[in-house]
Write a structure and sequence with these properties.
mainly alpha
Length: 308
């Protein structure tokens, strides 16, 4: 890469970091004239054009809606950049620029005393801080989101991600396991950054699982691979709810019109939780063996992997 191209990318990155996309495009295109084969310049222009249209359409929206558009489009952008080999400095600049702008939008958003909306705004602010590298600040907002409205899988997963990034692995494992148990479908992998969870997701994805089914199997293989190996004592009400959900899923599985691909991993994960409960409560071998038999009947291959 020529010195001129390196300088152009450096200047473009400074503009991208403050979401001055038009200036960044101009700089990159000027440099392309003398370096037409430069992949980083070409992709930089492509990505700038992607974001330029989005940013230009924000002004008519509320602050919360602006933040939602930015994060929603980041999901699309994440898919795009996975398929291409662009300069790390350019990708970092987009990350800094987009999440800084999203943070500004959510910080100005009005929750109008709605607890669910307030919690969601706090979660998104925490997510933005996490993406910008301020993990401890992010955790404060995420904890506030959890206090405002407890039991949300997306919030718990983001908290787990922060703990993992801060090196608090045991807490991270416990919270990730909790998040997947609460609602695996609400966890957004594209916003998670810790190797603890991303390596697991990649391993399960490599087994051929995708989409909603992948979400459920990550919970299962988190246990099988020893990632989600932290257990906690369940309250009596939680045990009752767990057994009720197991009964419901077992009934759903008998109906051929239901989606077996989603129900099976969910039920397997529920069995793992019940096994943890029986183990911690010292309920005895008979109850544990009963659940293990159910797991074996449900999926013999999975049972072998778990038992070994």
């Amino acid at each position: 890469m020529s010195v001129q191209s390196e300088e152009a990318i450096s200047l473009a990155c400074k503009n991208i970091e403050v979401c001055n996309i038009a200036n960044a495009v101009s700089v990159l295109q000027d440099s392309l004239v003398a370096d037409l084969e430069n992949n980083s310049l070409l992709l930089g222009v492509k990505y700038c054009n992607f974001w330029n249209d989005i940013l230009n359409g924000l002004s008519s929206l509320s602050f919360f809606e602006q933040g939602e558009v930015l994060l929603g489009q980041w999901k699309q952008f994440s898919v795009l950049i996975k398929e291409e080999n662009c300069s790390e400095s350019i990708l970092y600049s987009f990350r800094k620029g987009i999440f800084s702008l999203a943070l500004e939008c959510y910080s100005k958003a009005n929750d109008e005393k709605d607890a669910r909306l307030k919690s969601e705004i706090l979660r998104k602010i925490g997510l933005c801080y996490k993406k910008l590298g301020s993990f401890e600040v992010a955790l404060q907002y995420l904890q506030d989101a959890n206090v405002t409205l407890a039991g949300q899988a997306a919030v718990i997963a983001e908290m787990a991600d922060c703990y993992a990034l801060c090196g608090e692995t045991k807490t991270a494992k416990m919270l990730f396991k909790e998040a997947f148990y609460t609602d695996a479908q609400k966890i957004e992998f594209c916003f998670l950054d810790s190797p603890l969870i991303l390596v697991l997701v990649d391993k399960v994805q490599a087994m051929g699982y995708t989409g909603a089914v992948l979400q459920e199997w990550v919970a299962v293989y988190g246990v099988v691979f020893g990632v989600f190996n932290v257990k906690r004592v369940l309250r009596s009400q939680e045990v009752l709810r767990l057994k009720q959900e197991i009964y419901a899923k077992e009934s759903e599985l008998k109906d051929p019109s239901n989606n077996r691909e989603l129900i099976l991993p969910r039920l397997a994960n529920l069995y793992f939780w019940l096994l943890d409960h029986y183990s911690l409560a010292k309920e005895g071998a008979a109850k544990i063996n009963e659940v293990l038999l159910k797991l074996k009947i449900l999926d013999a291959d999975l049972y072998k992997k778990f038992a070994n």
